[in-house]
Amino acid sequence: MTTKLFGEPVQRREDARLITGRGRYLDDLGAGAPAAAFVRSPHAHARILDIDVSAALDVDGLVAIYTWEDLPGALAEPLPLLIPHPALTHGRTACPLAREIVRHVGEPVVMVVARDRYLAEDACSLIRVDYEILTPVVGVEEAARAVHLVHGDVPGNVGAHLVQEVPSADGRSAREAVETAPHTLAFRLDVERSASMPLEGRGVYARWDDDDRSLRVYSSTQSSTSVRMAIAAKLGLPLPKVEVIAPDVGGGFGVKIVHPWPEEVLIPWAARLLGGEVKWTEDRREHFVSSAHERGQVQYVRVGFDDDGRVLGLDVNILHDHGAYTPYGIIVPIITSTQLLGPYKIGAYRVEFSSIYTNTVQVTPYRGAGRPQGVFCMERTMDKIAAHLGLDRTEVRAANFIQSDEFPYDQGLIFQDGRPLIYDSGNYPEALRMLKELIGWDSFPELKAAAAAEGRTIGIGLGCYVEGTGVGPYEGGHVQITSDGRVHVSTGLTSQGQGHETVFAQIAATELGVPIEKVSVVTGDTRRFGYAVGTFASRAAVMSGNAIALACRKVREKALRIAADALEADPRDLEITDGVVHVAGAPSASIPLATVAVLSNPLRYAFDEEAQRATQFSGASSMDRPPIEEGQEPGLEGKDYYSPIRSTFACGMHAAIVRTDPLTAEIEILRYAVVHDCGRLINPMIVEGQIHGGVAQGVGGALYEKMAYDEHGQLLNASFMDFLMPYATEVPRIETAHLETPSPLNPLGIKGAGEAGVIPVSAVIASAIEDAEGIPIDRMPISPSDLHTLRLTR
Amino acid sequence: MNHPITLTVNGVVREATVPARRLLSDCLRHDLGLTGTHVGCEHGVCGACTVLLDGEPVRSCLMFAATADGHEITTVEGLAAADGTLSPAQRAFAECHGLQCGFCTPGFLCTVTAFLRENAAPTDEEVVEAISGNLCRCTGYQNIIKAVHRAAELQAETRADKEEGAR
Fold first, then answer.
1. Structural contact between residues A751 and A648, judged by C-beta atoms closer than 8 angstroms
2. What CATH number should be reported for the domain holding residue B22?
3. Testing the interface with A: which of B142, B143, B148, B150 to mutate, by most A Cβ within 10 A?
4. Which listed site, A454, A615, A678, A771, has its alpha carbon 20 to 30 Å from B99?
5. Which residues form the signal peptide (chain B) (predicted)?
6. CATH of the domain at B104
7. Does A21 contact B77 at a Cβ distance shorter than 8 Å?
8. Between helices A500-512 and A540-567, what is the axis angle to 10°?
9. Is the pLDDT score of A2 beyond 60?
């Protein structure tokens, strides 16, 4: 490694196009393509009696109208249940267009294609759908009572039920451990719904090439390879005839990992049927009512602990609201129930969850993916233990930490990847020490007293978490050096703003010893790389980063072998610097990688001067060996995959100081501090940016964001005017410090960082408000009026 | 009914024929092919579609294209100099990692460009206030705030260089 770029705050290579308006987001493509719009259910639960499209037929520019009855073969069937699980006994997914019953407001019923979106919406507004209204089921506890059912064939509205239990070292069950502990507490916690809410919604643009009998689809997705396979399967097309590309994607945060969305199969189908192109761009209201939400849970907690605050037994029962359908399985509650344990070793643990149907938008992962709820549960528990025993909150946490010499640490549970929950590395006591120093934990009582003397109420809080990142099964990388010396890197997973073009180029430039300017990176384009899983679970850097590094090492080895032949040197004596292979210590004996690339591909035809060197009469090859030796391939390229044995576990600890207004109950975050450990940093600037963004979303979840469903299942705040996301005025300055505990599991020693920032924020803010007010905070988000109400009931 | 309109966009006279209901954002994006202006909420809350109308920031999703007839419009595509030299705001956003997915960025750049014209050396508070009508879901605003200060510095340097050159 001669060109040291790994670990440097290299400026982003994506930015040049994005700051000049030359980005290519979904709706920027396909100028003039016919547009689709959807008639969506206005009811949360209803039976479709009749669809009358006659009034829409006269709309100028109308191309086509489709209902479920028009869908052929596999397209008419329910969409895939992406992640089956034995506990998901009653998984249900929707058809691309509603068949008979609609189960949430926003469910697509009719698709219209017209010359442009305005006209398509005109036609939609003229289509009459007659519904028989059925009783909607709203609210997870109401749904669990099962007076009415969301799906007639799902008893109790229970989609899944799962219990995991880890007994104590001496073999006692968690419930036994709680019962017999010196101290016991029982309480209930509530976390509201929120949503990923990327600034760009979903969108699909499909182009059928009738001459080539092939389909090209652009989708604002987090998994283009899997969308491709789903489209081929649903449309009955040979896989090589379908290509899917994720263009510039305007944020994902989880919602775009779900696939195929109804529109992702309907738009390509319509394009093929109509023999041309069709585009659909989701509008904001559609995004609110027909994509996905997350977070909503009710948790019942019982904990038993000793005089030092050590948890002897923890028994958690979770009601998880998964909305009307379960396309993404039960990943969210599995993550909640496993990652709940955080950096702690718990005496005995029992967790049970029921994943419940309601007549609301489906619930699938949003950044953090169940962790914010789990961390809220565990950290509220730690604070309650501290309050009960009169101990400092950091002491209780320290008493329960897994120690640095205890890794790998097996929590005894099965994680979201179906593999054991074994932490690979970490240093939790040091992270807490750094956090206390950063926020000034030990001197806060004086600050609080001084504020009180001035009539101001302030409080401090903290939250700790462990995040399983870089889940498998695999990602791959392909690296090709062409005869112009350029390095072309591709990986199958997609990008939504994480800066992959930059960090993967840093990895490739470092591994190959080439200037970063020579490296270009393509992600999420199935024409370039067909096998991939996707971008979610803080996995892209870990998975594709390592795969690309491994692919680069293959290419490097090949380059050195070819160069060694040309230079008549031993490959072990060669180095690559600035794109030139040379003998270590003898820079004059050298050959540029560009030339190595030429020599790697024995040619019959010279297409330029460089290529002449590799032609058959140039004397470049030895007469006693074939031009391509056995087991070798032409070209200076390599492909490799990274498939980890299990996830790697990052950690973080956050603290905040808040002020609560004695009169208005307004809550202001005065300081926010983050200590973060994601192993080796590839690009500290980008990691910081990820943390900032996560914290801001966490602040939204803690103080502002919720999905206001009424008892009819109508979402009352389905707009940016009413769903309150933080502006610059709502996000405090974020102070960060890094700890680097490398992962022993992967060649680069890295851990994921994408979701980290958001995970503990609700727990931290609740802790700080509780400290300021002296009122238990058991429900998030908390608004000034919520706090006001809590004060009245004190 | 369609209306012929003439707009001066990024210094170029552009003509289009639009229905009365055609939004300015859609006209810029789909009639004129300037897709740098993005639409995030379609009702004036997120600020992604912000463009400069006669130099003032406006939400192009809240304005009909016909209303803009005869006016001058600057979009993100028009912020750089004719020779491609990036504006201070553009340079600062890249330098300070003030963008991630980049979808909201054109709106921020237009807003900040107009703001720094009015206030060449803003305080932290003034910066936060100035960008408080634009939503970003990626960056947590930390580096956007930094970028606005940096843009002010770069603007001052550029002006100083020009004055130097003029002397």
1. yes
2. 3.10.20.30
3. B142
4. A678
5. none
6. 1.10.150.120
7. yes
8. 30
9. no
Structure tokens at A506: 């840093």
Q: Is B126 on the interface with A (CB under 8 A)?
A: no
Chain B positions touching A250 (Cβ under 8 A) are 38, 40, 101-104
Q: Specify whether the backbone of A394 is left (phi greater than 0), alpha (psi in -120 to 50) or beta.
A: alpha
Any CB–CB contact under 8 A between B134 and chain A?
yes
Which residues in chain B are closer than 8 Å to A253, comparing Cβ atoms? 137
Residues of A within 8 A of B135 (CB-CB) are: 199, 720, 725, 727
Question: Which residues of chain A are within 8 Å of residue B22 when distances are taken between CB atoms?
Answer: 118
* Residues in A touching B144 (Cβ below 8 Å): 728
Of the candidates A655, A667, A654, A653, the one whose C-alpha atom is nearest the C-alpha of residue A458 is A667
* Digit-coded pLDDT (tens) for A98-120: 999 999 999 999 999 999 999 99
- The mean pLDDT of chain A is 96
CATH topology of domain A162-193+293-471+645-793: Aldehyde Oxidoreductase; domain 4 (3.30.365)
**Which residues between 58 and 87 in chain B have a beta carbon less than 8 angstroms from any beta carbon of chain A?**
75-77, 79-80, 86
User: ipTM of the predicted structure?
Assistant: 0.97
Class of domain A32-134+202-281: alpha beta
Cβ-defined contact of B99 to A19 (cutoff 8 Å): yes
**How far from the centroid of its chain's Cα atoms is residue A619's Cα?**
53
The H or E element containing residue A38 is strand A35-40
Question: What is the Cα–Cα distance from A254 to A370, expressed in whole angstroms?
Answer: 11
Instruction: Tell me the pLDDT tens digit for each residue of B20-76.
Output: 999 999 999 999 999 999 999 999 999 999 999 999 999 999 999 999 999 999 999
B28 close to A (CB below 8 A): no
Domain annotation covers residue B73: yes
3-state DSSP assignment of residue A747: coil
User: What are the extents of the domains in chain A?
Assistant: 32-134+202-281, 162-193+293-471+645-793, 473-642
Mean pLDDT, rounded, for A304-309: 98
Does the pLDDT of residue A622 top 80, yes or no?
no
Question: pLDDT tens for residues A566-590?
Answer: 999 999 999 999 999 999 988 788 9
Residues A376-402, mean pLDDT to the nearest whole number: 98
Distance CA A232, CA A513 (A): 40
Domain shared by B143 and B100, yes or no: yes
Residue A621, pLDDT score: 67
The partner residue sitting opposite B101, judged by closest CB among A27, A118, A250, is A250
Query: Average pLDDT of A183-191?
Result: 98
Residue A538's nearest CA partner among A708, A368, A357, A384 is A368
Distance in Å, alpha carbon of B166 to nearest chain A alpha carbon: 29
Rounded CA-CA distance B166/B149 in Å is: 26
Given pLDDT bands bounded at 50, 70 and 90, which one contains residue A603? confident
Q: How much is the pLDDT for A631?
A: 87
Q: Which residue of A has its CA nearest to B134?
A: A727
Range of the domain at B50: 2-78
The Cα A788–Cα A769 span in angstroms is 12
Rg for chain B (alpha carbons), in Å? Answer: 16
pLDDT above 80 (res B102): yes
Note the pLDDT tens digit of each residue in A391-404: 999 999 999 999 99
- B101 and chain A in contact, CB less than 8 A: yes
Query: Looking at residues A636-645, what average pLDDT do you find?
Result: 96
Cross-chain residue pair A727–B35, CB shorter than 8 Å: no
Burial class of residue A141 in the structure, from the number of CB atoms within 10 Å of its CB (0-12 exposed, 13-18 middle, 19+ buried): exposed
CATH 3.30.365.10 for domain A473-642: yes
The SS3 call for residue A169 is coil
Going by pLDDT thresholds of 50, 70 and 90, the confidence category of residue A78 is very high
